[in-house]
Every structure is written in C-alpha cells, then in structure tokens.
Design brief:
This protein is an alpha+beta fold. The chain contains four helices and twelve strands, in the order ααββββββββββββαα. The chain has two domains: about 70 residues; about 150 residues, Beta Barrel (Thrombin, subunit H), CATH 2.40.10. The strands form two sheets. The protein has a six-stranded antiparallel beta barrel with strand order 1-2-5-4-3-12. A six-stranded antiparallel beta barrel has the order 6-7-8-11-10-9.
Length: about 300
C-alpha cells in the first residue's frame, strides 16, 4: 500500500510538472516582447517564491546558529575571566592579611545635586543641596563618577559649599599610579592643574594617572585626580613642571557624592579601599544605574581591578 501511494505521488508530481512547463511554453509563444517576459516572470515568481522563502529561512537558521555559537564562546570566556579575577582577589586579600596590611575605614556615599556654582570657566566653588542634617561636615571629600571634585569648606543645615580643584587654596597630595612618584596638586591659573614638588629626572610621563596618596588625612588614598598632559624639565630648576588635566569635567558637573565615615548615610557601604580603584567601584554602581547598558563591561572591569 505504501509503495502504491509513493507511485501515485510521483505520478501526480510528474503530471503537474509537465502541465506547468507546457503552460509556460505556450505563454512564451503566445505573447510577444516585454509582455511575454512579464507574464513568464510573474508566473515564475509565484512558483519559485516558496522555494526562495525556504532557502532564505534556512540561511537565517544557520546564521542564528553561528551567532549563538559565537555568543556562547564569548560567555564562556568571560565566565572564566571572572573566575580568574575572583581567585586573584582572594589571593590578594590573603597576602595582605599575611603582611599585616590594615585597610582604611569604610566610607559611605551621600549623593548631592549641584545648586550653585561660582562664575567662571572652572567653578572654583560649588554649592550642593546636602548639609548638616544629611551628615555632611567640613573637610569631607567630594567626588563624582569620574574622580575627585574637591572638599567641603562650609555647611548649613541643608546646603554645603565645596572647594574644587580649581582653587589656589586647594592642595592635594598625589601619587603617580605607575611609578609611585609623589607630589602636590595645585591650581595656579589657566586651564590645567600643576603637580608641584617633583624633583628633576623623576619618573613621570605624559598620560600617567594621578591618584590621591592619602597623605594629609583629608582625602582617602586611591581617588582618581587626573592625567599628566605635559612634562617639562629645565637645568635651571630643581623641580619639574608637570601639567595635569582633571578627569572631572567641571563645566558639565551636575551631581556629586560626599565621602563620609558617618553611619548616618543609608547608602551601600563602599568596598574597603585596598586598591587604587576601590572608591571608584562604588561610583561605577551609581553610573551603571544611570547607564544599564554598561553593566556587563562595568562588572568585569570592577572584578579585574579588585
């Protein structure tokens, strides 16, 4: 019975194939010129459409399959990298404990909005909408998601004034992330900051990153300040002239965070700053909330820098 059905199917298929070819042949002789071509092409497109659709669908399936394999490979690679970074973090913590390293106090972030700025390009002072009732006090450091902004110099119950990096009264102990050379960051007018008290022939290069050194007790160690954009040496001088560009763009600054050791802040605890990126890890969390599309790269970067 199955063999009989198969024969009938082949017979019907051959019959209809013959009919279609016969019709096309008749039409090709019946019509002339462009009309003939239009008719033949129209009928051909109707007949071939299911075949073309099937071929396209098959190609799409193989494309999706290949992309799925590529994505699976990338996920596996990232997963292994995360595991490797987690192991490095654990080993780093154990080594620090063995060598008697004592981490700094935990810090908390108080988010504030900027409600006033001093006139001028560099905003030498800024007013924020957080004050004493929020747990903010004088000399507390102020940061953004990009790096150091300044410190609190005056407070009221609801507002505070902060001294920015672009102020002649601002002096910040800094360290070169690469070479560990130290100096004092100050502003002396103009577009850029200056790294002072660096002896001639010190290992400072353009594009080096500067962090707070933790000296002086105001700014905790490891907050990003800026990058070196100019290095000059003169035989007549005993120190180098080093220009620094802050990571923070003060003209676009709208929100800041006050670092406090007080328990009054309800926000998440900052990760113990046992590396140069510790405080910036917490700031990345706030940045991720505003830009969730960056979550994957932010997570991997945070793990690799701990």
């Amino acid at each position: 019975m199955l063999e009989s059905s198969k024969k009938n199917y082949l017979k019907n298929f051959n019959f209809w194939t013959f009919v279609i070819l016969l019709i096309l042949s008749i039409l090709s002789y019946t019509f002339k010129g462009n009309l003939r071509m239009d008719v033949v092409q129209g009928i051909s497109s109707i007949i071939l459409y299911p075949v073309e659709k099937t071929i396209t669908f098959t190609k799409n399936i193989f494309y999706v399959y290949r992309k799925n394999i590529e994505l699976s490979r990338e996920i596996a690679t990232i997963s292994l990298e995360i595991q490797r970074c987690a192991n490095i973090k654990k080993e780093n913590r154990i080594l620090r404990e063995l060598y008697g390293y004592k981490p700094m106090n935990d810090f908390y972030l108080i988010p504030c909005e900027i409600i006033g700025k001093s006139p001028g390009l560099h905003n030498r002072s800024i007013i924020i909408d957080g004050g004493l009732e929020d747990g903010i006090e004088k000399n507390m450091p102020v940061v953004s998601t990009r790096g150091l902004v300044g410190k609190i110099i005056e407070t009221t119950q609801k507002t505070s004034e902060l001294l920015t990096l672009y102020n002649r009264n601002s002096f910040i102990s800094a360290v070169d992330l690469r070479s560990r050379v130290q100096g004092i960051v100050n502003w002396q007018g103009g577009r850029f900051l200056i790294l002072e008290d660096v002896p001639l022939h010190s290992d400072i290069k353009v594009e080096d990153t500067l962090l707070t050194s933790g000296m002086g007790g105001v700014f905790p160690k490891g907050i990003f300040i800026g990058k070196v954009i100019k290095v000059e040496e003169s035989p007549k001088e005993i120190v180098m002239k080093i220009g620094i560009e802050p990571f923070v763009n003060f003209s676009l600054l709208e929100d800041v965070f006050v670092l406090t050791e007080s328990m009054t802040s309800p926000l998440m605890e900052i990760i113990t700053p046992d590396t140069s990126n510790a405080i910036m890890v917490q700031l990345d969390i706030f940045e991720t909330i505003k830009n969730p599309q960056n979550f994957g790269s932010s997570l991997l970067n945070n793990l690799m820098t701990q």
